[in-house]
Amino acid sequence: MSSLKKQQHFVWKHYLKPWAKNDKIYCLGRGNIFNTSPNNIAQERFFYASEPLGEREFDFIKGFIKHLHPSAQSSQLELLKMYCETTQYDDYIKKCGIEDFHGIVEQKFKNILAKLYLKDLSFLKNVEDKNNFSFYVGCQYMRTAKMRENLINVNLQIPSDMNRESIARVFALLYSNLIGNWVFSKFKVSLLTNNTDLNFITSDQPIISTKTKITNEAKQVPNQFELYFPITPKLAIYISEELEENRTLDKNEVEYFNTMIFEHSKEQIYSIEALDLEQMKSKKKSITLQGSASS
Prior knowledge:
By secondary structure, this protein is of the alpha+beta class. The chain has 9 helices and 12 strands.
């Protein structure tokens, strides 16, 4: 039997490589800046372990799926079935089955990410690549600790006696699929180039929705999306229904996107240089962004 993967990452380690020097990345967490291996960040012990659903929780999720458009229900039911099956096998599948699922999604995105580094969007013309890109975006948006926390607290009229965390673990998969379908069917991708002396930062919530305002009272899962996704310290992509032109950003625009990433992180932000994080450290979480805010 395979050995248990105890430390499970909710941000893909390979994605973080452009922010690493000598296999170490700068991290700002809990007010401190430190230099560490990507192995040590954006992870929790058995983060994806499957929890059995009670009958009421299962029926609640089935009811949610039944209210979706008929075209979406089949794939949603397959994901629910997959999750339930992971709770019925051996200890490895229970604790690592969903982790392995995300590993498959990551591997299918790996060649696409290599093309993005080269600013090559030709993969969008290939249906399989476009589908892999779309589903990866949905998964990475929803699989994080920040989004699990949001789902536990989201206003979905979940009865108080139900296990909200178990429901949240399933809803992370369901919303990954729904967002992936939106990206596949409606999105356009624009490249944002950063030639300034600042770097794009990233975080433990590396994909953010620029149409969702974050407040202490914001508990709704967003229903409108424009997604910002830094790819390297000097390149990001913007995903929306309207095709934006590829742009080279000025310093104020880089600072704006970095502030959004900072505002929508849960506990950690990452950069290739400590100075970038020093600047973020000086900002307060109470910053009010003008215009759109994110994820």
